[in-house]
Amino acid sequence: MLAEIMHGLAEMEFTDKDNNEFYPRPSSAGPMKCIRQMVYHGLKISKTPLPGRTYHVFDDGHWHEELILNWLRKSSFRIHSEQMKVETRPPMTFGHIDALFTDMLNIDRLLEIKGYNHFTFNRFWDGELPLDNLSQCAIYLDALQRNANPDLKQCVLLIKNKNTAQYIEFEVEYSLFEDALTVIRSTHSTGEVRKINQIMPEIVVSACDKFKRTLEFIDKKTLPKRQYHINEDWQCEYCQWCKVCWENYEQEFNELKTNIDLPNEIADTIRYYKELGAQKKDIESEYDDLNAKIKQIMKDAGAKQGKAGEYLVKISMIKTNRIDKDLLSPTEIDKATKQSFYERIFISKAKELLNGK
């Protein structure tokens, strides 16, 4: 009654509001943001509407931020300057910070709040840096130091696991003189601290240069090379311009050059790739043989679970579903078939190619 209308309500509410104009903004300044996607946006190329579920995810993110700020107001920190507008370096014009917070020593720090799913959250805790979020922090610190408070050099990037309500924070410090952001440490809500001390040089200048290139492409009405690849990178899967971006790729691929001379140094990489491929094949074959042997021993013992030394072995029955095409008409099969593509490398010796093998 209610569940089935929720996503449809979001589609009706947000679809018309989703046609916002492109402008260089801090939230899009990071190195992971696809320039080609921004160029499509700037050229006002039609995009695929987002599903209603996605709008719910965005809306949930807004309320996560509000909930976090409400909890922090109960602490000894003073939360203020929420959504304060700051003037950023051109070609960016402005941005809105999440908040500032002041400690008991009257020291101000920037607070940026983000929410991610469980898997992305764990990647960040395991060592991957949220580069786009850190770029946004640097841009805001740069703006605040130049226009408001030269002593405001530090930021806490607080990330929430939206599945488990765990948190990690990245403590960072920005040097206006060097245009460098230092990621000092990360801290988990369990209390575990991990030192990082990684410097990201020319971080704001790099973001500005990226936007300058983007605006040049928009002005010339040309497209940059693709930053990601469909069926390989999640960025394409969630991009509203994915369809238009890849619709003529087969023609582009067929027009690529052949019989060109590659750099000599790539030969060592190819040789190593071939060696790994041969090892992989042998290892997978041995792995499959051992798998069959263990299963046979279990079946001979009439068991689906048993203990061998320090190991507990268990066989599970996995059920899968498949489409029996013999029960469908050609029209039904064609309607249900979704075409996709990927690129595969074939490597052989040059003399084999010359001989037509």
Q: What does this 3D model show about the protein?
A:
- This protein is α+β, with helices and mostly antiparallel strands and 357 residues long.
- It has helices spanning 3-14, 35-42, 52-72, 118-125, 131-147, 203-220, 234-237, 242-246, 249-254, 266-300, 330-336, 350-354, and strands at 78-80, 85-87, 94-96, 99-102, 108-116, 154-161, 167-175, 180-188, 193-201, 305-308, 311-314.
- The chain has two domains: 3-216, Trna Endonuclease, Chain: A, domain 1; 266-316 and 325-354, no CATH class.
- The strands form three sheets. Strands 1-4-5-6-7-8-9 form a seven-stranded mixed beta sheet. A two-stranded antiparallel ribbon has the order 2-3. It has a two-stranded antiparallel ribbon with strand order 10-11.
- Strand 6 and strand 7 form a beta hairpin.
- The radius of gyration is 27 Å and the shape is globular.
- The relative contact order is 0.10.
How would the blueprint of this fold be written?
Elements: H1 3-14, H2 35-42, H3 52-72, E1 78-80, E2 85-87, E3 94-96, E4 99-102, E5 108-116, H4 118-125, H5 131-147, E6 154-161, E7 167-175, E8 180-188, E9 193-201, H6 203-220, H7 234-237, H8 242-246, H9 249-254, H10 266-300, E10 305-308, E11 311-314, H11 330-336, H12 350-354
Parallel strand pairs: 5-6
Antiparallel strand pairs: 1-4, 2-3, 4-5, 6-7, 7-8, 8-9, 10-11
Helix pairs in contact: 1-3, 2-6
